[in-house]
## 1
Amino acid sequence: MAQLSSTLLYIAFILYLIGTFFFGGAIRDKKEKPSTNRWSMLGIVITIVGFVSQLGYFITRWIAAGHAPVSNLFEFTTFFGMMLVGAFIIIYFIYKISVLGLFTLPVALLVIAYASMFPREITPLIPALQSDWLHIHVTTAAAGEAILAVSFAAGLIYLIRVVDQSKPSKRTFWLEVIMFCLITTLGFVAVSTAFSLADYEAKFTWVDKNKQQAEVVYDMPALVGPHKGTLEKESADRFEPLVHMPAIINAKKLNTVIWSLIGGTVLYLLLRLVLRKRIAAALQPLVKHVNLDLTDEISYRAVAIGFPVFTLGALIFAMIWAQIAWTRFWGWDPKEVWALITWLFYAAFLHLRLSRGWHGEKSAWLAVIGFAIIMFNLVAVNLVIAGLHSYAGS
Amino acid sequence: MEQVKCECGHVNPHGTVFCESCGKPLEEDTSKKLLDMRYEGSARRSQTYNKTIIDKIWNFFSSVKVGVWLIVITLVASAIGTIFPQEMYIPPNVSPAEYYKDQYGWAGKLYYELGFNNLYGSWWYMLLIASIGVSLVICSLDRVIPLYRALQKQGVTRHPTFLQRQRLFSASQVADENRVFSQMKERLIKRRYHVREENGNILAEKGRFSRWGPYVNHIGLIIFLIGAMLRFVPGMYVDKVLWIREGETKEIPGTGGKYFLKNEKFIFEVYEKGKDNEVFNAAIDRVGNGTVAKTYQTNVVLYKRVGPIVPGEEPKLKKVKEYNIRVNEPLKYDHYALYQVDFKMNEPNKMAFNLIDKATNQSFGTVTVDLHNPQSSYNLGNGYRVELLSYFPDFYFDDDGNPATKSKIPNNPAFVFKMITPDKPKGEVSFVAIRQTIEPFGNNKYKMAFAGLDTRNVSGLTVRRDFTLWILGIGGVIFMIGLIQGMYWNHRRIWLQRVNGEVWLAAHTNKNWFGLKNEMKHIIEGTGLAMPIDQAEVEKKAAQGGDRNGATK
């Protein structure tokens, strides 16, 4: 069952990838209207089959484990990717625009690939997670975040279309920053995969902040080593760190971040060399037929639909469960605070839009920032700021 | 109060932008082609008065701009609070000043000095939240009353300029006006529009209730904030800790002596390979067998006191119920909830010693000391007796080198025994701690030899009673209802009017113009009416002078 589950996830991943190309083809096809041509028809069908396959992964894994597979970082992030595809499918049937698929599916692919870099075993539930609220809270929160992420995809399309690429400006710079971040995620996946295929392992003994001897295993060559870290005998032939970090910094994670940035930069520069222009400028022809007002509306509509779902899942259900499991509905745990920050941000977004008339480009930039906050809560709060939710990490 | 009379005869309050009834602009502003339909052009207090100090405060808090700034400042402040752990999450037995400095260096020191270690309880954070609360109330009142009035008073027949200046507008000439009107009326009703007719003109409206969504959700938020504030009212909220050993019966703190709890047994289980579902094996292997917790459970019996509280007398107890408290499964009774939050395994309970002759190892009997309630003397018969002169449950040597105890909990028990035997009737004194015997007065003949330890598990429970929960719950439900009401529906209006031998069609929605345009397409299909033009789009295109990226649609 567990084996079948992994296979289904793999199939879903491949199908999303193929779906992306079909949506790309739909835009290139000049003969017919992009919304109704054969390419986009096939694109959406393949996407739906992929979604069903991933749903199969989810169900079989649930059966195998005996609990909803949303209990660790891999499972949660994969589920988030699945919800993103689900949200896209719904929005697609409302607005019928193929270019949204061309941007949403790659984001979902990145999310799922990123998830796969974390331990993928089925983990048993610790007592705090043994509750029906696990799947109620986590799935609703993930669904809300995924719908909000569609607003990011629409916002990104809007920006690529509207930002003038004929001369460099603040706008072209920040748009490239977004592109670079997305490529860095790919860089992380590429570097992690490469070193894991090479079975790289280096064991260090180091001194932690409580001045205790500890051991750490790096799975990438250590550019930055742990505090007073020395390679153990069995890893003596491994790469010696260039610098050593002070004890309060988690050198292993920093090392991974540095490697991802290196990977991302290399990829980015290669792309720039090949394309001979900014990434966003290279993408611009893909979105030239896009109706800006409609894109703006999709971005806003996604927030309008996602915000209540997010509130319900990430705040209200979260509070109910926290009251049952942790004795209090609110405890200022970093994850809780960042859910509140996300919520406040989108509340500000809606007020700016409804009362102060922030439409179009301003609204698109906000959609991007909102997604950045969601990603920060998903990635950084789990991996960097440890709290009660940190068991959701690795 | 001043009032403004429109040419249609309707009397509007001072400050109205366009007539509530017919929509004719009262303050002529021709610079913009489209009417600003926000709040229906109604007279908002904040836009009308600005004289007294109350006006100024009102105007400050009624501004959405101020509200958004408050949200953004709160957002940034909240984020700062997550840089380092808050004081409630640092170990309890260290001084915060030193902890932040030790762990995070100068940044931690600064963090502590700025008071960010207790950010969410600081006066200025509270003030921010309170300001948001005030802003919610004033913003809502400033808008909802005039908006309600404007929507109630709106007339069916509109001034032609009102129609012309709507975002969606078209004028068409049709052969048979009456047929078109009746056809349109029928279709609008079919699409669940509420249709009003007057002088042969039509106003079709649906989803007006969605306009109240924002105000409903703001009410929910205010109720929630009030609920959160009530926590500070004495008696509304109980939060106590109860450490209870296996076999013990204790009064539940915070219940005023009303309830007692007995701990029958504490159970701690871990996941083990071979015993649990084998799909977990890989994960168990990675972190180590027996390190992942599976169960924390306390089997308890809840008792209620019967009769009055008499000081110094053992309470009479009546059994209420048996329950297994687990994480996620608190024991609930009479608004109280008991949660499993902590535990301590194998706390020393009883310690046994044999009185032996050091030379022959002959034993003269066993002394069992109850570490929570030790006796002062233990008679072993035949003239052998042991006296407990001093007892240190949590023993250490203080700064002067004297034995002392850190707490009353027997974490590291130590004893001073006096061994009285027939041949040493004055007794020998021996200091006994774990793996350590000191003979302060020289070489003893006898010795207290360790003969066994009996341990018990201790369960840590949290006792809660929170009368604010239902208020928070109501606030949350109202908030969700308001949010859904405002977000998942929209308020659409369609005007159909005969003007100078033409049929004028105008439409407005508060959001989702794409949906409205689609609906319009279906409604007018085959009627001969022209599809309304999106004047906002036309205006934007004109302003840009075509498309700046060269792409054309």
## 2
Amino acid sequence: MGRAGFPANAIGFAIGLPLILAIGGLEAFRPMGLSLPALTGGLLTLDTMIRVGLFTIVLVGLNLLMGYAGQVSLGQAAFYGMGAFFSAIMTVRARTLGIPPALAEAWWWPWLVMLTGAFLVGLTAYGIGRPILRLRGHYLAMATLGLGIVVYILLRENLGLPHLNLTGGFDGIQGIPRLRLGGLLLWPAWRYYFLVWLFAFGAIALGLRVVRSRVGRALRAIHGSEMAAESVGVEVSYYKAQVFGLSAAMAALAGSLYAHFQTTVIPATFGFGSSLELVVMSAVGGMASIWGAPFGALTVLLVQEVLRTQLHRVIPNAQGEFEAIAFGVILVLIMLFLPEGLTTGGLRWLRSRMGLRPR
Amino acid sequence: MLYISPDGTGERSEAPLLEVLRVSKAFGGLMALLDVSLCVWPGQIKGLIGPNGAGKTTLFNLITGMLRPTSGDIRFQGRSIVGLPPHRIAALGIARTFQNVQLFSGMTVFEHVLVGGHRHGRSGLLGAIFQTSRVRQEEKEARARAWRILERVGLVEWADRPAESLPLGLQRILEIARALATAPRLLLLDEPGAGLNPPEKAQLAGLIRSLPEEGITVLLVEHDMNMVMGLADEIAVLDYGQLIAEGPPEAIRQDPRVIAAYLGEEDEVWNAARG
């Protein structure tokens, strides 16, 4: 059944992959002294692009959960933090945990930790999800909010085991090792950038496959009408918990990558504010779209960056509050004019301009 | 073993497909259903009528597991289904439509029918991610099956349209198509004719009439008396949560209890039915 339509996925990869490669190549070789910040007037740095990649991984999962299955999560940063701290603890605190140095210093150890962490966090979310995903609407949002706060406090309070000092409390963990691939150190930043975007495109490809599958259709059906989905045999609570687990595993994986990028993790990075920021990115990009993930992350990070560096030129003596207010105003404008987010709304606009049937 | 048919006209050699046995349902102090018993026999189109608030939709919700009876038993193919979750009951072969159309917003007509076929598939999240050949084969079969059902109900040309953009008459047919995609033994239709114009109703009636030939038994709630009388071979009447009459359409039409129950209801509907 070849569905005619706008080949958004093909175009996405055809433009996205070369663009990401070009940016990486530019930063790796700096031909004729050119660099990403120089070409973008200081707006874009490799650091920002790495963050966009990391958030893309989280947001693909979050969009599957919120945009497709219709289940709001206000605690997604907790899973991101769980992944980050799991990697940090298992590498930096290996001795406290009694892991033999021969193991902990092997190049593949952090990779194994990363995958194990994602798996365990996903499994945990699935287990928690079975009961809390029976809740609907605001109640579910409140439950995930609470979950995020509990995780944040556990990280800050050393998991309740102060004598081991596993999470490092407020100060977090420093000195997380950079990743290696055999003998190849994944640093300077452009090398790490390629790694992160490899995962980000993997996440996008995974999201697209899930959306188009039997499971993806079941998720969208649950979003549309739980009653009707049940009436045709869709086991609603099972699918909800599954996608919750998947989104948590993806967030945890991104968190691990973040830990090895930043080499320092503190609990404050993974609080409620970050969860909210993720929801904002998701909404700006377009919740019900996989491609919305990179666009949402890029847009929000860019707007924040512009406000941080430029706002004081417009309003002298502007403080942090002005940034927050301006940020809010911009979000309201985006949501007013493109309520489905940049990708879904933008594609609809393109389709109508090209005379294609709106879908 | 012989089964006494409820209208007393004879015996049946088959077991009933669905048995509702002394079922009651209370919402707080309100008895929505009181001691209701009825049977649906394989291959029949059974009508279920009654004034508004008589408990018809409640009975549907009990049969499909969306509500649990306060007392009594419901058996499908001889097996009690009380307490099973809705998706398990669907898997046993009971499908339904809804009085207020329940569409999956944002999904196309074709996708609705694909979701209807959900229970025939096995592939899960990992299958979706790794796209094994088995998964692709399953997807191909699911699409072919969904396409056949769209052809069967005459919605092919609408396949790619968002379901919400369909006129109400076609939305109701789509709900039936989605239910048919589960390959049910028993199909519960909750006022499929509500809000439809005469040509749409005629199309719908034709579709419903053809279902028993395919081995699908129908339990039909409908307000349009002409439609029920023309389709059903047996009708049960609910009033204030109680079964007040059951029998062939001709008998129901004359039944004084039924006429009394409908006094004050839309007269024209009832007169049309008698005329």
